[in-house]
Amino acid sequence: MAHIQRDRKKLLTRVRRIAGQVAALEQALETGDDCDAVLVQIAAAKGAMHGLMLEVMAGHLSDHLVAEPDQARREAEAAVLLDLLKRHAR
Amino acid sequence: MAHIQRDRKKLLTRVRRIAGQVAALEQALETGDDCDAVLVQIAAAKGAMHGLMLEVMAGHLSDHLVAEPDQARREAEAAVLLDLLKRHAR
Amino acid sequence: MAHIQRDRKKLLTRVRRIAGQVAALEQALETGDDCDAVLVQIAAAKGAMHGLMLEVMAGHLSDHLVAEPDQARREAEAAVLLDLLKRHAR
Amino acid sequence: MAHIQRDRKKLLTRVRRIAGQVAALEQALETGDDCDAVLVQIAAAKGAMHGLMLEVMAGHLSDHLVAEPDQARREAEAAVLLDLLKRHAR
């Protein structure tokens, strides 16, 4: 069973919490003008998204690079991970 | 008028697009198990959140550090910005 | 007096520590092959460079955005900062 | 042969270029006070450090997660990588 299936419950809990943060942010942007609070909310939601990414990456490493017996498949999955790091980290 | 009021329309457009990305991600996590696609979706949503943060920061700099005539207020707002950078950037 | 002059001593202490970290890293790459240790050293040096950047940014904000009485100059300095954040953060 | 041995030449080229950037930065901090230029130099050196990290990570993935036949060793190396990402990325 793939890691997303196995971790589905905790991943959904995380993504739903993020959806709530984004909804609260939309509300704050619609009605208010407290930009300090908005910046803190944005940073918190971005941090939560990063936490979700690390959790999916952990499952990815565990299933597709550690447990995967086929070297060619490991190579393809390592490339996906490296590409993601190259494009999205600084 | 504060920058969040002035930029409200484009900030709401951004945050609603992010809400859509998070909803699509929730859907992908509920029904699928394609973790490569999920990682790419997460990275895209996180990048969009970063773009929103930069846009609010730009308004913050412009209103509270450039246009603000009172030095003590500029000092307080610079502290907010620096604190955010210290805690949320790497 | 500009912030770099005022903070020169502590900024030089930081940059010399980083130079030492980079020299140790060069040494480790020349003679060894312990990649876990090398990765940790690289991450530490990168973190130290980030700390130096935040320290210079703090001086920049303080001198050129808080204490600067001329609004046009504040505008130019805010643009430098924002451009840096746009190009180098994720 | 370990990836650091195999990639030694290009890794040393990178780290020596970084050492040059850090030396130039030290020089700029010792004699000057142009903080915009200093910020750009710091950001460039930090970016070069990040590039070096990605290059070592690529070798790490390739040798210790793709080519490594022993699953327990792959597990240990995946943990090193994940720990690094957890502590040093945002």
Can you give a write-up of this model?
Four copies of one chain form a homotetramer. The first copy, chain A, has a single domain (3-88), classed as Metal-sensitive repressor, helix protomer (Methane Monooxygenase Hydroxylase, Chain G, domain 1, Up-down Bundle), CATH 1.20.58.1000. Chain A is 87% helix and 0% strand. Chain A contains four helices and no strands. Chain A starts with a helix and ends with a helix. The mean pLDDT of chain A is 94. Chains in contact: A-B, A-C, A-D, B-C, B-D, C-D. The A-C interface holds A 88-90 and C 88-90. Chains A, B, C, D: It comes from Stenotrophomonas pictorum JCM 9942.
Short description:
The structure is a homotetramer of 90-residue chains. With 90 residues, the first copy, chain A, is mostly helical. Chain A has a single domain, classed as Metal-sensitive repressor, helix protomer (Methane Monooxygenase Hydroxylase, Chain G, domain 1, Up-down Bundle).
The best one-word shape of chain A is elongated
Q: Structural class, from secondary structure content of chain A?
A: mainly alpha
How many individual helices of chain A? 4
CATH topology of chain A: Methane Monooxygenase Hydroxylase, Chain G, domain 1
Largest sheet of chain A: none
What is the share of helical residues of chain A?
over 70%
Please tally the β strands of chain A and state the result.
0
In N-to-C order, the SSE pattern of chain A is HHHH
CATH C-level of chain A: Mainly Alpha
CATH architecture of chain A: Up-down Bundle
Radius of gyration of chain A: 17 Å
How many discrete structural domains of chain A?
1
